[in-house]
Design goal:
This protein is mainly beta and 44 residues long. It has one helix and two strands. It has a two-stranded antiparallel ribbon with strand order 1-2. The radius of gyration is 12 Å and the shape is flat. The relative contact order is 0.30.
């Protein structure tokens, strides 16, 4: 895992939002298995 064990992930604080865009980060990838987190921008 790319993140520190026991640390709360604050994805929005660590990654600046981009209007109209989705930002993502892969936090784990091993043996064909992956975990990604996403922040979806709400557009009105």
């Amino acid at each position: 895992m790319k993140e520190q064990a026991g640390k709360i992930i604050d994805f929005v604080r660590e990654n600046r939002t981009v209007p109209g865009c989705t930002i993502s980060k892969q936090i784990y990838h091993e043996n064909g298995t992956g975990i990604s987190i996403f922040c979806l921008e709400k557009v009105f």
